[in-house]
Amino acid sequence: xxxxxxxxxxxxxxxxxxxxxxxxxxxxxxxxxxxxxxxxxxxxxxxxxxxxxxxxxxxxxxxxxxxxxxxxxxxxxxxxxxxxxxxxxxxxxxxxxxxxxxxxxxxxxxxxxxxxxxxxxxxxxxxxxxxxxxxxxxxxxxxxxxxxxxxxxxxxxxxxxxxxxxxxxxxxxxxxxxxxxxxxxxxxxxxxx
Length: 193
Fold this sequence. Notes:
single chain; 6 strands; about 40% helix; oxidoreductase
């Protein structure tokens, strides 16, 4: 069994750590050895957040080196460019097309860059998902993270190997389980492999 490396990136407040916990929990229940690492220094202030999830038959370290990620999951468009060097040459990027302007953009010092998704598509195999629209259809914008997890699960072919409902139930508040299960399914359905 091959080991897989998934790097998730975005900014604070997007639920990236929760998404990694859902993924890790489901993988463990599915029989994989899983290691997870998270970095969230200035996350509370909208700073960069990354998590690294490695899984397979036997994994010895949670750290993913440059050019070693099988999948780069970006919850915010600009963050994709920052972490793209970690994606392997035959890896795949999953990008949420949702844009969160940084402080310099909000103050008008610089514009939000255009064409980021198109530039990345020209470089690597890319799945672009408008998770904001999908989350709005679910009824809660905060489900974007779980929608992207659903897309990742489908991309990796993991939708049938574990009980993802149990992972959602273990990781989110009881009153949010139903809406997150719906979000997970919508995320899976958004990807055609």
